[in-house]
Amino acid sequence: MSSSLDAHLGSHAGADPLRLKVAETIRHLATAAVKLRNTIIAGGTGDNLGQSREVANAGGDIQKELDVVADRLFLDAAKASPVAFYGSEEQEMPVVLARDGAFALAIDPLDGSSNIEMNVSVGTIFSLLPVEEAHHADPAGAFRQPGSRQLAAGFFIYGPQLQLVLSLGNGTHVFAFSPSFGGFVELHASMAVADQAKEFAINASNHRHWDEPMRIYIDDLLAGAEGPRERDFNMRWIASLVADCYRILIRGGIFLYPGDGRKGYAKGRLRLVYEANPIAFCVEHAGGSATDGMTRILDLVPDDLHARTPLVFGSKREVARVTRYLTDPSAIGERSPLFGKRSLFRA
Predict the structure, then answer these.
(1) Which 3 state secondary structure label does DSSP give 21?
(2) With contact defined as beta carbons under 8 Å apart, do 253 and 244 qualify?
(3) Of 325, 297, 306, which Cα lies nearest the Cα of 58?
(4) Residue 333 in 3-state DSSP?
(5) Which listed residue, 16, 121, 142, 182, has the most CB atoms within 10 A of its CB?
(6) Are the CB atoms for 109 and 124 separated by under 8 Å?
(7) Cβ neighbours around 334 below 10 Å, total
(8) How far, in Å, CA of 64 to CA of 51, rounded?
């Protein structure tokens, strides 16, 4: 039988007091995820979980009924855990819980909620940050730490299976919920992102709003074997961050959500603290890379719980190639009448 999540957490924690608290928190989050999964399964026979509440959350997105349900479940899980501060996409300000708590929990309780009514996979993304003495006087400061300080991070996927992608800083592991077992069992140990990308994920409808180097990069991918990359790429775009990330962990590729010229999108759309940081933590510990296009995501210092960032992650070589496109435009070759500027960056 595969190893269980509980055994994995126990092995990692040993007798270390802080790690034992991390394990306790992850267990409570997993219990909340199972409850949310059951709510989603029952949703077709009860409340309309995809119904808009005509109220915007802290990030400006219109809340769905399931957003609120998810936030309530994970807030309850945080209250039962050694969590001092709860920072959620659905809350304007951090919620102060236990003053003697060890962690700040940053969470997107329901990633991809626009997909609820389409029955597309949604998820929960979370990050555990250490709490220091100074944070008790300034709870918001606990969420202004770089992602490199995360103690654990991961995401649940509510799809055909309930899955947990988890990194405790020593690799990235995938667990699946087994109803017969009554818990999570290991599905993939020590994930390794393929070094070379064959697929890319981006919302191509925003092409006209991107800066020229980003347009050229995508044009070079679309040019395929006849273009400067000299090989074909497939495009995938689920518009569910957890689903797109899981695909890349399984079979490689690259995800891009750049900033663009639309009002309010100069820094992209994704949130650094509870989306980009935990995704980057999992991807890096699986051998991949994550940047804002130029700078490592885990080195960025957020100025707010809801700070936004561009996000590029996936196969390490491909992420590095994007950085070269954005930082060294002089390396992009002559203009082609069919594909625009031809890149000197070969496959």
Answers:
(1) helix
(2) no
(3) 306
(4) strand
(5) 142
(6) yes
(7) 7
(8) 5
Instruction: Give kind and range of the element (H or E) at residue 93.
Output: none
| Residue that is written with structure tokens 């995401």 in the block | 155
Among the residues of 276-315, which ranges form H helices? Answer: 277-284
Residue type, 119: N
Structure tokens at 40: 């989603």
- pLDDT means per 10 residues, the chain with 347 residues, are 89 97 98 96 61 58 84 98 98 94 97 83 97 94 98 97 97 97 95 95 97 96 95 95 97 97 95 98 98 98 98 97 89 50 52
Rounded to whole angstroms, the Cα distance separating 234 from 247 reads 13
Q: Which of 256, 252, 249, 297 is nearest to 273 (CA)?
A: 297
Closest C-alpha among 156, 180, 172 to residue 29: 156
Write the CA distances from 10 to 130, 207, 243, 317, 324, integer angstroms: 20, 47, 28, 35, 42
Q: 117 Cβ partners below 8 Å, 6+ apart?
A: 50
| Other CB atoms within 10 A of residue 229 CB | 19
